[in-house]
Amino acid sequence: MNAGYNFASGPSGLPAAVVERARTELFARADDGSTAFEQPFTGEAFGATLAHARARLKDLLAVPDNYHILFLAGGATQQFSMVPLNLLGDASHVAYADSGHWSQRAIREAGRYAAVTIAARYEGERPLAAPPLSPWCLPDDCAYCHITPNETADGIAYPALPDCGAVPLVADVTSCLLTAPLEVARFGLLYAAAQKNLGIAGMTVVIVRDDLLRRPAPLVPSSCDYRAQAAQGSRANTPPTIAIALAGMMFDWIAQQDGLAGMQARLQRKAALLYDAIDASGGFFRAPVAPGHRSPVNVRFELARPELTTPFLDYAAQRGLHHLHGHSAFGGLRASLYNAMPEEGVHALVTCMADFMRRYG
Amino acid sequence: MNAGYNFASGPSGLPAAVVERARTELFARADDGSTAFEQPFTGEAFGATLAHARARLKDLLAVPDNYHILFLAGGATQQFSMVPLNLLGDASHVAYADSGHWSQRAIREAGRYAAVTIAARYEGERPLAAPPLSPWCLPDDCAYCHITPNETADGIAYPALPDCGAVPLVADVTSCLLTAPLEVARFGLLYAAAQKNLGIAGMTVVIVRDDLLRRPAPLVPSSCDYRAQAAQGSRANTPPTIAIALAGMMFDWIAQQDGLAGMQARLQRKAALLYDAIDASGGFFRAPVAPGHRSPVNVRFELARPELTTPFLDYAAQRGLHHLHGHSAFGGLRASLYNAMPEEGVHALVTCMADFMRRYG
């Protein structure tokens, strides 16, 4: 049986090779008889798992030595609170670029802890696009500027990074980390929930430059204090052990596929195939995002006749193409092409779209 | 090969039957082709996993209908912050009983958010005991009173619950939840990290009475707002999906072993066997906690000759008896007898102790 293809925005599928490896390795018994589910946090076996994941991620992204890599429990929404609580310091302002749904969620949460300057504003008019990249007016007294380079729900990607001068750039890279090379040194802090390109739900990676850890807010929960987590190797509170083990397996798998350059080349092929099929459908399918701003990883599209949306979702599911519905805020369709999605999955989707169009067009 | 016995204070071992079930079920493919690692949070397959875990836990503990059961990412330390942030409301005071290491950690964290009254003080003199259960003077303006009925590091258990009158009783039951029946209605809130008696690391269960959810603090992180988590069925932020699946399997396993009465009977046999062996060793081994206050689940003991501690740990490990060292704050020895520890494990430990005593006594 074909296992089908999972186009969900997250949790994503995992590569078949990672699933097979997990099936073996999570249940292998260490010298003390424990499986990966049962290992003490301070013991050798889990210590090796944690060190492996950290070293592999450092390699893949060429993380400079003055950055800490943290593996924290929970999802990215928790970091919407923890970023201002950890980085505000003596500043009174933070800046956020509004680029759609998830950046707006981040802005709302940050506004509970600091005065938020909107560095750039999302227009929201079709064709949809990332906010203009200049001029961004940042207040002098600004702890950081936050962006969402890939908007998972809106299907929008920044065409380039903004220039924020000396203000540290913070980015929610939940849906795009490890889909392409990234110059970590351009950022003060990066964070990404794992369940899209790095493994499974329950863990978020934070990569943070060490000079930003000087002044956590007095009220940051101890378990979420980046400085304490850095000092204690992500073990200041119960670490999400299985999610860390799975992330290590994903990092190995990515390295085996020519690393981030390999991921990027494959992603570009997958995205081009799908966007070309949409654009070549004579308006039967259409993409609401302007070329140049289209996310390669979350392909948002729709049917010109909205009443065909549910029939299309059913038609696709019958062919093993699952979870193609758009974000609940927008409806329509979305195909997420995360690292684990094989090119054959996109070929199958494009064929399915053509067949559906022949039947209903 | 004997897989050995894991006496660690956490993560604990899992019952062999649960490990086998996980090996099969986590990798079974749902209708959409996804394994448990890959299922969308809002989809049917994970929805069923979550509903199953919640229903089973409600059954096991006979949780009244006016309580919410939450499955949250992270460990119990995070709840040290979240309890005051969620429950303080308009009150200015909270009360905490000091009973040893982990309650002191909880007190320190609560003191960052509220004025803390110490309702009862730990003496810390041998023989060690829980703090006196009366009189507890609670301020009128007191949001809740927090206890740690089982001190995992100190090896101390309360002989009974205090009477806090109308003040809601909050308890960190991380190391004892589901080891014996518990009258939930006596508590306003209970919380327990999963990796001791309920499964694996990365998840904490919170059981909270609904009238306590009225007034979260203005600055509680949205992802940690109990009210929002209750309203959204523990999906206000990325849920720890695999830890929830494993907890459901543990709940089933406990139900199959005669439920909490069965767990309690077995635990009492295990604890009696070990404490009797310690007390009958003529002072070669000794337990620092007074009878009547000894934790059945975290048996703290030591060698009269401390220089024998490391030889004993090595001797036990060679026989497959692992992680018997005490908490790093205290040294000595500790055997954690969580739900998954079979009675044969304790028999093997008692035999090992007798053999060691013959050799070194």
Report what the structure shows:
The structure is a homodimer of 361-residue chains. With 361 residues, chain A is an alpha/beta fold. The first copy, chain A, folds into 2 domains: 16-256, Aspartate Aminotransferase, domain 2, CATH 3.40.640.10; 259-360, Aspartate Aminotransferase, domain 1 (Alpha-Beta Complex), CATH 3.90.1150. Chain A is 34% helix and 17% strand. Chain A contains 9 helices and 14 strands. Chain A has helices at residues 16-25, 44-61, 76-87, 101-110, 226-231, 241-256, 259-279, 309-318, 343-360, and strands at residues 5-6, 67-73, 93-97, 115-120, 142-147, 150-151, 156-157, 169-172, 189-193, 203-209, 285-286, 298-303, 321-322, 333-336. In chain A, the strands form 4 sheets. The first copy, chain A, has a 7-stranded mixed β-sheet, sandwiched between helices. In chain A, helix 3 crosses helix 4 (101-110). Chain A is globular. Chains A and B meet through strand 1, helix 1, helix 3 and helix 6 of A and strand 1, helix 1, helix 3 and helix 6 of B.
Give the helix/strand layout.
The structure is a homodimer of 361-residue chains.
Chain A (H helix, E strand, L loop, with lengths): L4 E2 L9 H10 L18 H18 L5 E7 L2 H12 L5 E5 L3 H10 L4 E6 L21 E6 L2 E2 L4 E2 L11 E4 L16 E5 L9 E7 L16 H6 L9 H16 L2 H21 L5 E2 L11 E6 L5 H10 L2 E2 L10 E4 L6 H18 L1
Parallel strand pairs in A: 1-13, 3-4, 3-5, 5-8, 8-9
Antiparallel strand pairs in A: 2-10, 6-7, 9-10, 11-12, 12-14
Helix pairs in contact in A: 1-6, 2-6, 3-4, 6-7, 7-9
